Amino acid sequence: MKFAASRLAQVKPSASAWVSQAAKAAIAAGEDVIDLGLGEPDFDTPAHIIEAAHQAALNSETRWIMLNLPSNPAGAVYSNAELRALGAVLAKHPDVLILSDEIYEHILFDGRKFQSFAVANPSLKDRTLTVNGVSKAYAMTGWRIGYCAGPQALIATMTKVQSQICSGACAIAQAAAAVALSGPQDDVRRFCAAFEERRNLVVDRIALIDGLTLDPPGGAFYGFIGSAALIGAKTPSGEILSNDAEITAYILSAPSIAAVPGSAYELSPFFRISTAASMDLLSTAMDRLGAAVSKLTLA
């Protein structure tokens, strides 16, 4: 979600809140920018995010609150009560709009039920834009079909802009997406069960690796792995790992595991891996990751 001091900072509802380069510049200039810091991935204490909304909405420059639930990179999920608490804050500030990115809505674990912001807060529907697509739940990434629902005036304006950017989505892809959305959902449930099994494998295996942490994601298909204990560690070749980008470079060169450093999200020290792989491949990756970490000399 976006919130502002005198400039914008960025916060995502995950095990994370990350501050943008613009916000860092604001901090360097002595301006007051909220940093929520790290918390539980499901925000067991939602007062943090509610306070951020207060601060955002009270600033005259803020126009959008942006949500991504379940979230990338940490897989966090808000409850209906948490969404309604956030909505109660925003209801007091009619100039602030809400964009709810719900692309991972069908990939939920541990019996969770999806909660859409607009459904949880029907009184805010006139200023809520809900964004979704078929890429994740229906394994249709390459088909490039997304959609949104929101106030008619906003959608009309978006359509004008979109028409100047591209000529339109492929007709075949549109027809395939319609079938995916309206047809039997058995495969979606099967996919979700498989993603949960993979999530469990990665969470269990990371727990066995000294120096790494992972709060169990509530949805999506990523593991956002904490690596604070590896900062300052020495590699077998004598190099010192000073940040998470160097950690991901090390695990790429040594055990050949591709990961995205937390710094890419302005959130360090973490790295993100995808769990959208087979159980065998993930098991092999965890073996290699554990072996690579065990070769480090911790600071």
Task: Please provide a written account of the structure.
This is Aminotransferase. Its cofactor is pyridoxal 5'-phosphate. Its EC number is 2.6.1.-. With 299 residues, the protein is of the alpha/beta class. It folds into two domains: 2-133, Type I PLP-dependent aspartate aminotransferase-like (Major domain) (Aspartate Aminotransferase, domain 2, 3-Layer(aba) Sandwich), CATH 3.40.640.10; 186-293, Aspartate Aminotransferase, domain 1 (Alpha-Beta Complex), CATH 3.90.1150. 35% of the residues lie in helices and 13% in strands. The protein is built from nine helices and nine strands. A hairpin with an 8-residue loop joins β8 and β9 (270-274). It starts with a strand and ends in a 5-residue tail after the last helix.
Which features would summarize this protein structure in a list?
alpha/beta, Aspartate Aminotransferase, domain 2, Aspartate Aminotransferase, domain 1, transferase, 3-stranded antiparallel sheet, 299 residues, 4-stranded mixed sheet
Blueprint of the fold:
Blueprint: E1 2-4, E2 8-10, H1 21-28, H2 47-57, E3 64-68, H3 80-90, E4 97-101, H4 117-120, E5 128-133, E6 146-149, H5 152-163, H6 171-182, H7 186-206, E7 222-226, H8 244-253, E8 260-261, E9 270-274, H9 279-294
Parallel strand pairs: 3-4, 4-5
Antiparallel strand pairs: 1-2, 5-6, 7-9, 8-9
Helix pairs in contact: 2-3, 7-9
